[in-house]
Amino acid sequence: MATPADASGGRPAPDPVTLAVLDNRLRAIVEEMGEAMLRTSYSQILNSSRDFSIALCDAEGRLVAQADHIPVHVGAMPWATRAVAEAFAGDIREGDTFLLNDPYHGGSHLPDLTIVIPVFADAALRFWSVVRAHQSDIGGATHGGYNPGASEIWQEGLRIPPIRLGEGGGLREDLLRMLATNTRIPRDFRGDLMAMIGAARLGEMRLHPLLARYGAPAMAEAVSAILDLSEAHARRILATWPDGSWLGEAFLDDDGFDREEVAIRARVTKRGETLVVDLSESDPQTTGFVNSSYPNMRSAVAMAFAFLLDPEVAKNDGAFRPLEVIAREGTVVWAREGAPVTMCTSHCSNEIVEAIIRALQHCCPERAMGGWGRRFRVAITGQDARRAGRPFVWHLFHARPGGGGSSGGDGWSSAGEWHSAGGLKFGSVEMAEARFPLLFEAHELLPGSAGDGQHRGGLGGQLTLRVESDGPCRANTAGDGVRHGAAGLLGGQDGSPHRYRLRRADGTERVLRTKEVGIAIAPGDRLLIEAGGGGGWGPPARRDPAARARDAAEGYTP
Question: The whole model's pTM is what?
Answer without folding.
Answer: 0.95
